[in-house]
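OP here, attaching both records as promised.
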Amino acid sequence: MRSGVVTNLLNLSAEAIARIYKARWGIESFFRWIKQNLNVPKLFGQMPNAVYNQLFAALIAYVLIQWLYQKTKLAIRLPALSLVAFQRTLLTVTLPLVWLDALTTSLHEYFALSRSSLSFIG
C-alpha cells in the first residue's frame, strides 16, 4: 500500500519531508500523553507563560500521585490497583481501606523522616 503526502515544500527531498512529519508525530504523541495522563484536555491560556504554568502544575500533580501510588503499592498486595484505578478512586474518595491505611502510613513515615532530617534548621 502506498501513501503520499501533499505539501507545498517543493524544495525539500522526500526524506526531509518524512523527517519533518516524523518529528511532528512525536510532538502530537507527546500532547496526547499530556491530555491522557496529566488530565489536561484543554489549555486555558494562549500566552506561553499560561501554558507553561498549566502544564507544570499538571506535571507536578501527576508526579505526586505517581509517588503516592508507588509508596502505597509497596505496602500491600491485594486488592491490586492500577495507577489509573488508584487515581480514580483517590479523587472520588472511594479508595479501599487497605490502600487508604497504607497511604496514610506512608505519608506519616515520610513526614516524620523529613521532620527529623530538617530538625537542625529550626
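Record two, same layout:
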Amino acid sequence: MRQRYTQFSVSPSILMFIPKYFAFLLGFTKINSIFATISVLNNIRMKILHTSDWHLGHTLYNFSREEEHADMLRQMTRIVEEEKPDAFVISGDVYDTMQPSASVQTMLANALVDIHRANHDMKIVCIAGNHDSGSRHTIYRTPWKALGVEMVGNISRDSRLEDYIFKVEGKGYIVAVPFAADRFMPEDVFVRLQEMVAEMNKEEQLPVFLSAHLAVARCDYRGHDMSTDENIGGLGCQELNVFGEGYDYIALGHIHKYQKLDSDGRIYYCGTPIAMSFDEVYRGNRHCVMLVECEAHGAIPQVTPLEINNPRPLVNIPQEGFAEWEEVKREFANYPDNIPSYIRLNVEVENYLTSGANDEASMIASEKDCRFCIINAKRKESAQKEKERQVFTTSEFKQLDTTDVARMWIESKGDTFDDEMKEIIEEVKREIVGS
C-alpha cells in the first residue's frame, strides 16, 4: 500500500523566528550561520548583475563605436531576460564624457527601458563615475524611479547617508556610493553605511552589496594610460580596508580589467564589457558582466563572469609585443579580409618609421573589412642601452629633478639631450614656478 505524504508550507516569519528560539535555548551569541541555513530553506537567494565602465559615446581614432555599444546593450538585455536577477548594478562611467551628445543620452535611456522590460521586478542601480556628470544622473532621478531605476549621482559631507541604501524586498540591500572628490566624500562613508545597514538588517540577515567607483591600491591597471601605483586614471588609490567589514559583495567600477581583489572572493572589478583601447587587449583579459549570487548575509557569494562579445574587436598585430615593419606588414596582409575589426600595428624600428608606411597600411586595409587605426612604433634598444636603463621605485622617482626626468625620457627615445634642450626645459620650469 502506497504511503501518503502531506505537503505543508511554513510561513517565512516563522522560519525567521526559529534561529532566535534556538539561540535563546543554546546561548548562541552569533547566529549568522543558522540564519544562512534558514535563508536557503526559505529561498532568500539574491542574484545581481554587476557591470560598469560602458563609456557610451567613446570614439576610437575618430571612429564611432555606437554600433558596438548598441550590440553590447542588446547582449546585456538578453542576459537579464535569461537570468532574471533581482538587481542590475552599474558601478559608474556609463558615459565617456560629462557632456554626452543627445544621441548618446538617448541610447542609455532606451537601453535602461529595454533592460527594465526584460525583468519588470528587477531593481536597477546606476551610480556616477568620474567620467559621468553626477548632476546629469540626479536631474531625472524621480521619473526613473517609476521604472525601478535608482540613479545615484552626487554625494557630499552634508548628504543623508540613508538615501544611499536601497532594499530589494525579501532579497537584500544595495549600498550605492557614487564617485566624489576626496574633499566632498563623507568621512568613513563605507563603514558608516555598513553600520546603518547592519542595524536595518538585524532581523532578516539578508545579503548586503556595495557599489562604488574608485581605484584600489595594488590592483592590475594594465590598459590605463598615464597611471602609477598611487594614481590610476586620475584617481588616488585607496586601501581595501576603507570598506570595513560586513559587505557580502563589493561591485567596483573604474579599473578596466576584470579581477578579484581579495582572497574571499567578495571584492571585484568587472572591467569594461568591451575593450576601450588596444592596451586592454591581451591574453588573459576578459570583457564581461558579473553574475553574483549570495544566499544570506555572511555567506560567500558565487561569482560567474558572463562574456560580452564585441562585433568589431580590437586587434593588435602582432598579437603580443613588436616586430619589424616588413614582418608586421606581411602579417597584416594575411589577416582575413572578412573580419570586422580595428587594427593597430606594433612596429619596432631602428631609428624612424619607414617613409610611406601609413600609406602602405591603409592600402592593405582598403581591401579588408577592418579599420586601420595607427602604427604604434617603438624604437629598438641596443642590448647595452637596455642593460643601462635605470629602474626606480616610486619614492626614488619622486626625488628626481624634473630636468633629469626629461633627459632620461628623451634619451630613451633615442634622441640627444643637448644644452639647447636643457635650456628649454629650464625655461619651462621657470615659467611654471612663476605662474
